[in-house]
Amino acid sequence: MSTEVSAAKPGLSALLRSLTGARSNTPRRSLGLTVTQAKVQAAMEGLRTHSDPSAYAELMELALRSIPKLASTWNTRKLAVTGQIPYVVASGNDALDKACGEFLRSVEVRQTFSPLLLAVYLGLAAVELVWEEEVPGQLRKLARTVPVAPRNLTFDAGGRTPLLLPAEQGGDLSALEPFKFAVHVPEHSFGHVYEAGLAFQLLPIAFTSPAVVSMLLGLIERFGEPIRVGSMPDPETSRLTPDEEEQLARVLLEALQSLGSDAYGLLPAGAKIELIEASSSNSTGALHQALLRYADEIIATVILGASLTSGTASTGSSTNALGEVHNEVRQEYTRADKEALALTVKRDILTPFVRLNFGADAPVPDVYFQAETSKDVQATVDNLAKLLPFGLRVSQSEVREMLGLREPAGDEELLESTAAAGDIGLPAFSSRAPTLTAGASTKRVALSAEEQDEIDAIVGELDERELDKQLFNAIKGAKSLAEMQLALVRFTKAAGEAVPGFTEQVAAACACCSAAGSAGVNLGGK
To answer: Is the full-model pTM beyond 0.85?
Structure first.
């Protein structure tokens, strides 16, 4: 392993001086929580003319934080990816592959997945990488990461290349340097890069929900309580002076205003209050609720590909089968998100790690994410048990993570299998012999000369009497069939350590005998 900067990349020293710090992410400006139609139009105009695309991105980021349905639906899509574990494809260098796998599963790297996936929503997202100081003899890893706020990004004249706005007014724009920034662009299309994001499709409907909720609250305030009407005494019969009438009107108005929250009132003699029930064709808010449901379904359809997977279907005719179809569509979205993110992680995060620690000529392994966790774990374990004897190579760490088991510490007590066949890889003998099919051969199966010579050589190295004595001592204390099987396994292991190849030959002989016995073949002669 090489930790020298010059071996990693020529001329990298100047760049590495900036890899251990991060710029301030202080907002340059804020749109505030009040979003008006004028702000939406101004943001769209800034995106269309490429004059101020950051205002559009900040507006849609605000929508993601302030609209509950949009936030929850986006989290559903995002967590389907960030909850998966990244792996590397073996490159042939075991030490490098192990280091890369551990690096990708570190907290610092996995913390970049969520902000990078914001690119699916916005069209582009960036994360600043802060690397550890170089220490001889140790791998250089990420110390921390800082998401780059959309407000701090702008673009070139073509709207394709992101540029970092200066931290202070009057500064120069700067490019997002490799090794220092990870930039995720899942969709490449014509036009501005932000136009490829889901937010561009949601802009006409994104702020409908807050506006409708505001109108619905006004509707409740208007029609939820009866109209309060106060009556003044007749001036011709009340004989009140103008000052007394004015004072009475003031008291009556205060009583009407406080009656909305108070259950009592004090009125002068002759004054009265009437409560009139209001009626309207939309007094129940049915139109507003229908508009809210429509907005929710549009959000779910754009982000998840269907609405039944987020509980927003309002037709009443949804079925479990249709819901499963919609769920399969969502899984296709998840698969595409993982593939795009894996490419970015390899290019912008794993490649710098390999170059900084293993040099410029070291291969960079491909990255992939864990498969869907909805698989049948029992079926997978059963298939592994069947395929491992045939030479299938499987990563122990991947199987442990699938089963939810961690790597045991060196001083921990370990569970050991008591199954005889399982300990040394012997084939499990079936309790039922299969029925011979028509035409099955019953001829004697003979060993080849080479196989016979190997067995003779192994047997020749063993003292028959001593072997019988050791075998008898190994099994004489067994009180059950299971204990005898375990004793035989231990004896076979000990003999295998003393004589190389013994265990393999015994396993092969057992397999041959099992197959011959099941087929009714005579191996012993007459």
So the answer is: no
